[in-house]
What we know:
By secondary structure, the protein is an all-alpha fold. The chain has one domain (2-64). The chain is built from 2 helices and no strands. The radius of gyration is 16 Å and the shape is elongated. 0% of the residues are buried.
Amino acid sequence: xxxxxEAWITPIxxxxxxxxxxxxxxxxxxxxxxxxxxxxxxxxxxxAGILGYVLKVIITYVMESGxx
Length: 68
């Protein structure tokens, strides 16, 4: 039962954390009056870490399931 709970709750909580970090980036851009270009740059630069984690999860899943 505990393993099933952990298997479900971990991706849900990590997804929530990623959404919260996107909100933080958006709020940072809004409060600093970054403008359209600045907001895009903030999402690209700060979102690169989030993208790296998501790509790691996808690559790990593909490799464990036998590849393409």
